[in-house]
Amino acid sequence: AGLPGGWDADAVIDRVERAQAGAEPTAPLIALQAREFAVLVEHLLR
Question: Which residue has the higher pLDDT, 6 or 32?
Answer without folding.
Answer: 6
